[in-house]
Design a protein that fits this description.
The chain has about 250 residues and is an alpha/beta fold. It has eight helices and eight strands; from the N terminus they run βααβαβαββαβαααββ.
């Protein structure tokens, strides 16, 4: 990081284009992103983000947290509420999203960085905790991201994933599938003139996303210890966590 100022978006020259279509999509829905997150999750996204923030781990006061795919900054806002003294950093590959985060966090000292989560521009052993909320579905190589996260975590540090998923075994599975793949895009497109294609993609990505047990297996393969997960709201959301081996992985 070249500088550390309140809500300054830092451009990284080494930023890779990444999946251009996804980046374009998030740029198009930036102005509606927070509203639809609250509306289409019936406000449960606030509870999920709060639950993740409470699970962040401080190894050494005041704590240092990195939020990957930080988007418009809601996870950083929750982290600041729970850990007001912690040093917060957000990374995202969409400048419109980071600009939105900077406006929302205008009174909070947060380091916002434009960059690729698969090549995070941070030194080894930099953060007590790293999180990614609703962004793992958009990552082309999950294992590469896990390894990079392991690199930037301090020994004993915690990695937390908040993500949506679809459990076909759940009693309400047919209704849940209809809501995320049909109703959400219709509401976004017909009622609010939002890009229907974006919400069709998001719904399909939720249905395809693996069960928490699969994510735990991937984390273990990459060297994480002290693994665990919790499912929320009719098994539609998960928080999965693991620790970098070190002196304390509780």
């Amino acid at each position: 990081m070249t500088e550390n100022t309140t809500n300054k978006v830092i451009g990284q020259k080494s930023l890779k284009p990444g999946p251009a279509k996804i980046r374009e999509m998030f740029g198009l829905i930036t102005s509606r992103y927070d509203f639809f997150n609250h509306l289409l999750s019936f406000g449960r996204d606030i509870f999920w983000r709060t639950s993740l923030a409470r699970k962040l781990k401080v190894l050494e006061n005041p704590g240092s947290f990195l939020d990957l795919a930080t988007g418009s900054g809601d996870q950083l806002i929750m982290a600041h509420k729970i850990w007001p003294q912690a040093q917060l950093t957000g990374l995202d590959f969409s400048r419109p999203m980071l600009d939105s985060a900077a406006r929302k966090l205008n009174k909070t000292a947060v380091n916002l960085v434009l960059g690729d989560a698969l090549e995070p521009p941070f030194a080894d052993n930099s953060f007590d905790s790293v999180s990614i909320s609703f962004g793992l579905r958009n990552v082309a190589d999950r294992l590469a991201l896990y390894r990079q996260t392991l690199r930037v975590l301090k020994p004993g540090g915690r990695f937390l994933i908040l993500e949506l998923f679809f459990d076909p075994r759940h009693l309400l599975a047919p209704l849940i599938r209809f809501h995320i793949t049909k109703m959400n895009p219709w509401i976004a497109g017909r009622m609010f003139n939002a890009p229907t294609e974006a919400y069709q993609y998001l719904g399909a990505s939720i249905v395809r996303f693996p069960h928490p047990a699969v994510i735990l297996g991937e984390l273990e393969e990459c060297g994480y210890k002290g693994l665990g997960y919790a499912a929320y709201t009719f098994s539609t959301a998960m928080i999965v966590w693991g620790h970098k081996p070190g002196h304390d992985i509780n």
